[in-house]
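Schema walkthrough. Field components (list of strings):
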Amino acid sequence: MIHTDLLFYALSTIAIVSGWRVFRTDSMVRASFLLMSSFIAVGLIMLLLAAPYIGIATVFMMAVEMMVMALFMVMFMMNPAGLNPMQMVHQHRLSIIAGIVAFAALALAILFSDLPQDPVAPGKPGVADLGFELLGNSMLIFETAGVTLLATMVGTVVLSSRSGRFGGADEGSRPPGLEPGGEPAGRKPEEKAGGDMHQCHGPGRQHSEKQQDGDEQ
Amino acid sequence: MSMLACVILLLLLIFGTLFAAILDTAIPAWIAGQSGANPLTTPFRRCAQFLAVQRLTTERPDMLNWLLAPAAYLILAGIGLGVVPLSEGLVFIDLQTGLVLWGACEALTVVVVFLHGWSANAPFPLIGAYRYVAIGLPAMLVSMFVVIGVALPAQSLSVSAAVEAQRGLWNIVKQPLGLPLFMLLGLSLTLRGPFDYADPFDLAAGTSAEDSGPLRASWRFARLAMLVSFSTMAATLFLGGHHGPGLPGPLWLALKAAGVMTILVALGHVIARTTPSRMLTLLWVLFLPLSFLDLIIAGVESLP
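Field assembly_structure (string):
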């Protein structure tokens, strides 16, 4: 019993510390994989709670999910490759208030609710029961959620890809500075659209439209 | 019991890795029809060379992830091997959801290879890392359906049950598509041949381009250890695992794993490489539907 307790405390420490580091690090890739370590520790705690499927599936899902998330964040960001240092937190006041409220609410819920004492019998086929529950009674909910998530993912890619239906996604974008308030990194937005019709800003826009009209005539 | 399993696993890992290193020298020489290097001494000589080389580093690398990546790769290989039943009732990690744990090892391997390339903070390793993620994830997806196909007739997610379901007839006969598709994952998991988008020659060794000295030796060692782990898993899922007449279970398992490993190393040297984009199309358009077909075959087989 004592080493289960020790394991629980060690894993929860890992989960909390790496969860805290997610917000203190300066890189999206590091933040993703710190979040992954936090979730892996939680998955192993589930394993201690005699939920072998949910525990290991959490590890599995989080590994794939955080890898894909890191990749997509880097792809959709103007900060190439996620290598430049960046601030991972914003809207400080709102997030501090939200954090305190959420923590207080969860702590109160734990303190004032009747936690069930229901140890799993050793011979109980927990994994099989879970499977029947997921693909029996709850199948409609499960499948609806799955299809909705898939549609959301496809929609996100369609809306945010560079050649999206609402025009180029990087139009008018300005890369972040190498130093705070400094020169933008990489490609600089041009003041005048010199011949390139896709970069339309300010006076350059009229110029290029005129040119286009001229071409049509 | 658990102690015995631990000892057998360590022996399997050490001698398997040595065998893999020997195959890696012997098979290319045999395919090319040359007999220059002695395959028995070359791995040791190469290892000594790596260890004697000076450690170099890049500008501002993520040192923690760079050093941890080979260790994590080796640990994942060890955990994957630990799930495999060595003989009747002799399993190191006896988990109801062993197949899911193996899947988690596959997924975390992609993460580890990515971090290995990313942490060096240099162009070639970074390109290798991103290319590997693009190819490694769909390859893992294909293998997931194949593994579900193995779990279906066994009606369980435990690896022991999957071995038990093959008592009469091996899965390679019952699900002929399973092993070939699973081999693709093996190539991808061990960064080999046509699926080596992480450490290939065309990127000057990709994610390990900036590795030098002991770091490079440990990465190579971890790759070979993962080859042992994968071969043992393939033998367990498709070739009946420890079942076999006469010899004790662990020996049968080792023999079958050695066979799978030999084929895998040969495949890595025989199959042509292609561009990442074409491989991505192949994976999504050809291999993923094939894995669905494999799942249908497994489903029909397990109908009462």
